[in-house]
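Rotation project, supervised by the postdoc (A.L.). Task for the rotation student: set up a whole-complex structure prediction and record inputs and outputs verbatim in this book. Inputs entered:
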Amino acid sequence: MFEYTERTKQLQEKLLRFMDDYIYPNEKVFKEQHAALDDPWDNPPILEELKTKAKEQGLWNLFLPDSEYGAGLSNFEYAPLCEIMGRSSIAPEVFNCAAPDTGNMEILARYGTEEQKERWLKPLLAGEIRSCFGMTEPEVASSDATNIQTSIRREGDEYVINGRKWWSSGAMDKRCKLAIVMGKTDPNAELHKQQSQILVPLDTPGVTIERHLKVFGYDHAPHGHAEVTYDNVRVPVTNVLLGEGRGFEIAQGRLGPGRIHHCMRLIGVAERALEAACERVSERVAFGKPLAAQGAVRQDLARSRIEIEQARLLTLKAAYMMDTVGNKVARREIAMIKVVAPNMACNVIDRAIQVHGALGVCQDSFLAAAYAKARTLRLADGPDEVHRETIAKLELKPYRRDK
Amino acid sequence: MFEYTERTKQLQEKLLRFMDDYIYPNEKVFKEQHAALDDPWDNPPILEELKTKAKEQGLWNLFLPDSEYGAGLSNFEYAPLCEIMGRSSIAPEVFNCAAPDTGNMEILARYGTEEQKERWLKPLLAGEIRSCFGMTEPEVASSDATNIQTSIRREGDEYVINGRKWWSSGAMDKRCKLAIVMGKTDPNAELHKQQSQILVPLDTPGVTIERHLKVFGYDHAPHGHAEVTYDNVRVPVTNVLLGEGRGFEIAQGRLGPGRIHHCMRLIGVAERALEAACERVSERVAFGKPLAAQGAVRQDLARSRIEIEQARLLTLKAAYMMDTVGNKVARREIAMIKVVAPNMACNVIDRAIQVHGALGVCQDSFLAAAYAKARTLRLADGPDEVHRETIAKLELKPYRRDK
Amino acid sequence: MFEYTERTKQLQEKLLRFMDDYIYPNEKVFKEQHAALDDPWDNPPILEELKTKAKEQGLWNLFLPDSEYGAGLSNFEYAPLCEIMGRSSIAPEVFNCAAPDTGNMEILARYGTEEQKERWLKPLLAGEIRSCFGMTEPEVASSDATNIQTSIRREGDEYVINGRKWWSSGAMDKRCKLAIVMGKTDPNAELHKQQSQILVPLDTPGVTIERHLKVFGYDHAPHGHAEVTYDNVRVPVTNVLLGEGRGFEIAQGRLGPGRIHHCMRLIGVAERALEAACERVSERVAFGKPLAAQGAVRQDLARSRIEIEQARLLTLKAAYMMDTVGNKVARREIAMIKVVAPNMACNVIDRAIQVHGALGVCQDSFLAAAYAKARTLRLADGPDEVHRETIAKLELKPYRRDK
Amino acid sequence: MFEYTERTKQLQEKLLRFMDDYIYPNEKVFKEQHAALDDPWDNPPILEELKTKAKEQGLWNLFLPDSEYGAGLSNFEYAPLCEIMGRSSIAPEVFNCAAPDTGNMEILARYGTEEQKERWLKPLLAGEIRSCFGMTEPEVASSDATNIQTSIRREGDEYVINGRKWWSSGAMDKRCKLAIVMGKTDPNAELHKQQSQILVPLDTPGVTIERHLKVFGYDHAPHGHAEVTYDNVRVPVTNVLLGEGRGFEIAQGRLGPGRIHHCMRLIGVAERALEAACERVSERVAFGKPLAAQGAVRQDLARSRIEIEQARLLTLKAAYMMDTVGNKVARREIAMIKVVAPNMACNVIDRAIQVHGALGVCQDSFLAAAYAKARTLRLADGPDEVHRETIAKLELKPYRRDK
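Outputs recorded:
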């Protein structure tokens, strides 16, 4: 109880050393190399160097529970590792554990045909290409997946795709080669059988990257969130995933684990923010004493510690339940961490900003950028309110009068 | 991980059945019998009946980790059981697991001489008498234990005790026979060696129960919190616990487990408050639909569920650490749950009151009384601010410049 | 702007002196006299003495805007005076400005016939009798007034009343002689024309005070909240107020000013709680320095000051609008202060309790009792959620698509 | 009471019309013109066009209480106008009411010599040049002004300035010609007499704009926040403001009004965010109904309305007190709004973001940028904690034991 497995402990140790040896010292290098590039959507060379190192050390594809293709770790085993990666914005990709590729690789590993795996899963697992996920549309509320308007119409041996997606994260990256697109193959089928997911090579004629979307002023280059139009895009029928009408089913399977990774990483970044706050208040002097000697500051540090601990425990429990009783039974716990983790991270980072003063909001610290990301995750997979609604529904079920 | 032990599961099942069969149905009986008594500090007869039943079923002294005298459960094993008892205000005593007797029994079991055990521990374990703990004094801030003013002066083979204590919980009860009193035997010794703890039979000449203290209007009869004066009270030197100057040491050992029990019980009462809220909103209609259909109500139910889950996990972790690495190493976790559990309970109960309307604040529901208790526990073992201070101190330790 | 009128300033000064000279010193006297009474629903003699003094000084019926019967002050002029009275639980009645009599006197002054005024308004204005208001019923959600079930059926020259009311505040008081009862004269009329209000002398056969309701353990004696049954209670038809079917209309007119008084008083009690907190932290020492030197304590004092100031300004603005544009146009502001004032008071008092430690929750301070009252006022005139709903409705009106 | 003056009402009307006619429709134009510029620190031509129009309509320099140079409005009169300007990020400059010029113009108008006025105040009042204020330094906590390290050493008829400033807002703008720099002329004088303020033309040799600082990823071009070094910068002795050693005194006078303008503008932007939220929830449909029909959303709209109203009233009161009793007596109220306004704005904007979903965090809405600014204002003039400390100090003063 409250102990990690041996495997996790060994990987934790290795990972922590790697962070110290290669990740933290190279955050600045990454930044400088990126600043020197002509095209912000190119990648700094340091990234590939680090990926090679991570691969050599066996710190690669740890996210994938499938032991044929990945590390074969359970969610509970992976959680503390994912948390560590979350401490640095450059780390997840170094270990080939970055969103949205992780979710896409899981889908391909679980539902892909041999041919699909050969063509897309292999290079993704090798870290040679990247991918995006085309789900959210600007015109409709995406917290309700049945709203989707993109059409996927069959014509002979091809599907013809028409629609507009935005927040296709990663699509700006020059190495992004594949989009998994969700759309409607049959608008007349029953509500959850209308959607399909389909593989669309990004170089297919008719696919246009319209622009990139900023998050609180950040372009998140070289990753980037794109608005993408699909104008009579044609792909072979074999590109459909799992079969027509099964898009919703795939989405459900994808979102559970995909999103718990976000929660884990948020815990990591919150830890780092708290450390930065402790560091700062211990050295910064105002009104004759270090900030660390001020009661109000100390109370806030304690609040952050308490919130982090509680969020971590709840995330671990959700991971454990996903492993043992499955995503469906664990949906209450998944909904809870989706509310808890980003809110906790926003609070903890905001307090860290506060003790950093103006330094905390500018480019000289990681805090403001981390806040912007955490804030966005209160929306990215449906707003807090929708998850609380899910929890309330489950809570009230035993009391329903009409049952 | 996140699983209770077999022993806990079996006792949980038994306990839950006992609650359903005997505790809940008799809460009203207890109230009515108590209302009919001439003296509010007498006990309703139903209590002894229930105690006999609990003893028969082996649901007795579960709190005591010492397996010679009690159940021999670890904190982690006891936590989920204590939580269940916390659901009813009459339950803890029925199972002989009520404060402050539990803490006093632990002290006696651990530090008592054979004679002390024979005279006091045995009847306490048998549920024949009750006891109180005389620590807090009205004149000084008790969050800082070095402030204590009560004097314990040796004269020959006796100690002479002089002082004024308040919030001696349980001292109003007619069956209360023993006070464990904390005072200073040597005001000139070093700071944490000045205090001693001593056994004082409540019928010793010079001991006067001055009055009872109410909590938010509640007298908590027949238990009750007393203000007690000690006026030249003489007890034999053999009544000292562990030895002169070791009072602080005993207090430290007592407070850890004693207080985690409060946290566990608070989780139980919060669960019951949430259940009451769900029940209420499912049946109460306003503006044409059940309260359960209102979004604001549902969001609040979800908030309560989230807070309870997180508090429970943190409490379990603290219990686990107390068992495995000891109270000292676990002091960060203990401090955290002392902040988290009562605040969580206040929030959850307050939300339950809100959906009950005026019913929630009066004697027809358990909610207002439960709130008053939970609120008091934000102070009873030092205020939130002191615990957060402890947490901050530990958090900042690695960053200290003067280390 | 932000200045009180001359009249208010003069009365403020007078009132403050009266508080210092007569109210604060007699709070303890009131308590002791009350404790010495045989019947808790009798009144301590000090009360009549103080009322005589207040009358002599012209500090009497200040609440009544009608200048024929009362002081003729506007809401804006009365607000700062009512705030002062709110500082002591015994003050409002001393100045004949206590709920629910104030609301009842307003109704009688505005809607009563000459005969009704002669019989009831006169002795109420003279402080000779007291009254209660029978609205809330235990079986239905009273936040929705159309739910009321009590029936008022005409039979010849009489109305026959049947129903059960609770939370009839003041009905326990021996001097309470009159109930204004709300019930349905015509359940088939349109929704807001079904109700009537009727005068019921409390000694009418069929009226039974069933029991008193406690608020968080307080019985609020000698005032007290009663559950009252009406069993075939017969009163002459002339006892109806304003006319059959106009009960809802009267209620609307009553609640606006009636409730703003609560808000004003809450500001007063919050001020006193903040003063008590400042006093306490300035004298109490812990860990080697006064609590006032601790940063966390100081931040909380500032929070309280900020919340009080904002609540006061909003209440004054609502009062000003009620005076200038009327209750209907001011309903947004009225709804806002109903949310703001009790929540502010709960927060401020809770923080004051926190720095008082255990003293703050017991009978030795006014804080816990004040908290219980403030908490109840988050429900007494409909829960926070209902007022926020009103505000949202008004806010969204200009954006409605169906307009 | 609670009424604006006639003059304010007239200007309000005029200003609102100007906003509708010229500001809102040109926000997009400004953006597009700016995007098309080669240098982001140049200004879009639309700006000068709008300034001309504003000047023609007499909506110019409204901020300046001095009626010789400006509109001669009191703070209380200006507040509601400044609020309106705060609704658009391009508006303040259009009306020549943008920070930090407003504060600099006030200093020059109040303390400047005729020569200083001629050279700097005149073109500033005419909107021909812009200015910056060099106060904050990267190395020391600027919430404590005595920490400043920049040296201003006299050598003959010149002062020699050496130091490093950052967050010199506006210094990136090509039209910025003047820095008012705060530094120490005499480090051995008494604490508040060490500092002086001095006029430094930005083209003086030795002044280097090192780089610009981003706020949550935004560069705030063409305004921009600069890090500026002063390396043996020489200016004539006549450039000192008011006299040697009087820098602290000037700063005190500057910060009061300067910062209350921020508060006013924050109220304006919060209003606009609430309007955007209402608009959005009225049109956006999820789960079969508009967001406006969801209880949780409606509660949040009400919360925002309540917070805005309270912040506005407190700001108006502070303005009124500054006008009537002066900045020193009003320092409690000034401290209060510095806490209240930015926190309120953060909350209101954050809730607006939440109902906008991903749209709310990207460049397609003004919300994320507005949040970043509001968040920064929780730090810009000292953190919340410092203002609360000021309030607590004043609150506790009457209770001090050592007085």
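Student's summary: Chain D touches chain A through 51 residues (CB under 8 Å).
Supervisor addendum: The mean pLDDT of chain D is 95.
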